[in-house]
Amino acid sequence: MEMPKATEADKERFRSLVPDVPEVSVKPMFGNLGAFVNGNMFAGLFGPTIGIRLSSGDRQQLESGERTVPFGPADRPMREYTGLPEIWNEEGDGDDARARAWIRKAYEHVAGLPPKAPKSKTHTAGK
Predict the structure, then answer these.
(1) Residue-wise pLDDT tens for the chain (127 aa)?
(2) Of 1, 17, 52, 71, which has the most beta carbons under 10 Å away?
(3) How far apart are CA 41 and CA 27, in angstroms?
(4) How many CB atoms within 10 Å of residue 30?
(5) Three-state SS annotation for the chain
């Protein structure tokens, strides 16, 4: 499977749309970016596509009213995520406002989930 890489312009746009609050961290992921709150990803970049994790009701609302796309690899899209309409990448400021609002909803949803437990740093191989 080939992993699409985000361009620097895609990454800059993604960073500009993610809430600028202390609880959010944006980290590199496989040549792309992910935005996290409490250790859980709420938005990600997969090539030029921004995917967001919404409540099921919000996801249904977005998917029923917009031309969303699957988020992630074509053979295994991430089931709890919806890709924002690709046309929004081309239409400019009005669509950035819509993208920002939906990313904010994703942030609020995921911020309400239990924090992700840190991975254990113990290594038991060879024992």
Answers:
(1) 577 889 999 999 999 999 999 999 999 988 899 999 999 999 999 999 999 999 999 999 999 999 999 998 888 899 899 999 988 877 666 688 899 999 999 999 999 999 988 776 665 555 4
(2) 52
(3) 10
(4) 13
(5) CCCCCCCHHHHHHHHHHCCCCCCEEEEEECCEEEEEECCEEEEEEECCEEEEECCHHHHHHHHHHCCCECCCCCCCCCCCEEECCCCHHHHCHHHHHHHHHHHHHHHHHHHCCCCCCCCCCCCCCCC
Token pair in block for residue 9 = 């312009």
Q: Which two tokens stand for residue 25?
A: 């961290």
Given a contact cutoff of 8 angstroms between Cβ atoms, the answer to whether 71 and 81 are in contact is yes
Nearest to 22 by CA among 44, 11, 38: 38
In terms of DSSP bridges, do strands 40-46 and 49-53 run parallel, antiparallel, or are they unpaired?
A: antiparallel
